[in-house]
Amino acid sequence: MKNEPLRILTAEGALRGAIDDGIFVFKGIPYAAPPTGPLRWRAPRPATPWQEVRDATQWGNASWQNREYCLLAGGGDPGPLSEDCLYLNVWSPEIQPSRPLPVMVWIHGGGFTIGAGALSPYNGKPLAARGVVVVTLNYRLGHLGFFAHPALDAESPRGEAINNFALLDQIAALQWVQRNIAAFGGDRRNVTIFGESSGGRSVLSLFASPLAAGLFHKGIVQSAYSLPDKKRSEALASGVATAHHLGLENATAEELRALPADSFWSLPPHLGNGPVAIAGDRVLPKPVVEVFAAARQHRYPLMIGYNSDEASVLEFFGVDPVATITDLRARRPLLLKMIRSLYDEHNDRRLGRKVARDMAFGTMTWLAVQAQHRRGVPGWRYYFDYVSENSRDLCPDGSWHGNEIPYVMDTLSAENPQQANRPFTDNDRAFARRVSEYWLRFAHDATEFSHQLQGEIPWPAWRPGEDITLRFGVKGEAAIRPETRFMRLRLRLLRLLVRAMVRL
Fold first, then answer.
1. Which residues form the catalytic set?
2. How far is CA 94 from CA 101, 185, 336, in A?
3. Spatial CA neighbour of 358 closest among 238, 155, 494
4. Residue 269 resides in a domain
5. Total domain count for the chain?
6. Domain match, 134 and 169 both
7. Is the same domain home to 398 and 266?
8. What span is annotated as the signal peptide, if there is one (predicted)?
9. pTM here?
10. Along the chain (504 residues), what's the average pLDDT of each consecutive run of 10 residues?
């Protein structure tokens, strides 16, 4: 009888999982058929049911990607790589709870080119131990996840083309959750999607996609950038150029699908996808920024925020924040004077980092909470400014892009080779407990009728008058406090300028 709870019956077949410190863990569960061969660049098909009990104690394959790049910047080793990558993982504290548990579905970031749901910072065990069911997933990345080409368009009826295969994978995973999560103790009527960077953009995209309606109930967006989605016309031209680069003139769909999967991530930079989805297909008919600007997103509660040194990721991609200030001095000196006064900052390097951060990330949070208010559903805005005690000399400008993840997911105790020389402290772990409690409260309690989230400090939903932002950390130190009209004038101004000045 001891091992009986490890066997779960899903709609597709029985699974055998494991127990990790009292938490039930099921890894490598197929949520759709392998998108290989003739199924490459098609909507995910249902997984083939199985008859025997399927082992669910090993991670599933991650999508094709640059492993070294993921080790350097994506959070660790993504594990085995394959085009056969549509797998998810589930952590549950109780298979048969007295009441179904809230479900939190994590969508990993990595610029839509790297990452996996199995990376150690995304381990679902700590949050599950505090009363939620956690799901992480893999989805198609790079050109396998986002691709347009006239030969593929010809396979669809006019106006029905699909280019955002990665978003369809995420939708298929949410459909799996609706079918199966009750068997793991989860409440399919209380599903929170959350993600960071391109995972945050995924959450916004699902808020904007008509195909995702009804599959989740609220979302948390961490450090989503304000870049415009790629136009379908540009994606089609890029697809033709990519095929040409790979030796295919006037390529047929069959020839494209015969290309080796690993040929796409070694393409030159000008043929890269960029860290955004493609606007104009059936999955994402309108660009995300346009949908939120018109307040036409799904009517679900939303939490959104960003970190104090997001310029760290811009630097990683070769964007020099100081160049923005130099350019303004040469071309728009009066505007530079206005910006200096708003930031009360006269050092070009520091000012450049702050302006780049707020343009590339802050304006998205401002747009989103305004859209939520106009839509008549609550939105909460946060700002993460905590730096781990052993890294404060390394991060003089604040919290880097992605640094909030182990605090949100309470995974500071997880093994992470990147932190070997600067281990987390007990004080860091105590702060992670405080931060993650707000994510859990949102998953448990937030509804379209909520006015505030409970916590050590009650967190009111955003309204134009009060314009409250909750700060997690102040100048690197541990503190949680609400700020009124935080960066309000800056973000209003930068929202007007963002399209002209933010480039990756």
1. 197, 310, 401
2. 9, 6, 56
3. 494
4. yes
5. 2
6. yes
7. no
8. none
9. 0.96
10. 68 97 97 98 98 97 94 93 98 97 98 96 98 98 97 94 98 98 98 98 98 98 95 97 96 97 88 93 97 97 97 83 87 88 90 91 94 98 97 94 97 70 93 98 98 96 93 96 88 72 43
